[in-house]
């Protein structure tokens, strides 16, 4: 069986996306220390009184997000290393495009694991304002609507 098949484009793009997430996460500061003092600001309704409506669950998420995202992106990269195409061998009517199977699970390529990863990890396009971060507007002061 030939293992010198060219890298699958979709697999390469997915790997680059996961490595970018991992690199950005490694550079980011942990919110663990910052989230703890904010807990003292929670009011009776369970919100921190700033323009962003932070609840206890938000603080829990922020405190753990960096470490969890590092683990998650590492898992994605390791799964990509396991699930990659290889020549299935045998006779093909089109030698330039041999039948490929997954190196790990032996399903026909792309295997169900790779397809699920491609769907889950493909970057989502923002509809409204692609240049703005997704949180923009949530942390800005809330203005009362104009009466006139």
Structural write-up:
The chain is mainly α and 148 residues long. It has 4 helices and 4 strands, in the order ααββαββα. Strands 1-2 form a two-stranded antiparallel sheet. Helix 1 runs antiparallel to helix 3 and helix 2 runs antiparallel to helix 3. The C terminus is likely disordered.
Q: What order do the strands of the largest sheet run in, or round the barrel if closed?
A: 1-2
| Proportion of residues in helical segments | 40-55%
Largest sheet: 2 strands, antiparallel
Report the total helices: 4
The arrangement of helices and strands along the chain is HHEEHEEH
State the total count of DSSP E strands: 4
CA distance, first residue to last residue: 74 Å
Morphology call = rod-shaped
Radius of gyration: 23 Å
Mean pLDDT, nearest integer? Answer: 77
Which class of secondary structure composition applies to the elements?
A: mainly alpha
Low-confidence stretches: 132-148
Strand % is: 5-15%
Give a quick rundown of the structure:
The chain has 148 residues and is mostly helical.
List the helices and strands and how they pair.
Layout: H1 9-27, H2 32-39, E1 47-49, E2 53-55, H3 56-82, E3 85-87, E4 100-102, H4 112-121
Antiparallel strand pairs: 1-2, 3-4
Helix pairs in contact: 1-3, 1-4, 2-3
List keywords for this structure.
148 residues; mainly alpha; two-stranded antiparallel sheet; 4 helices; rod-shaped; disordered C terminus
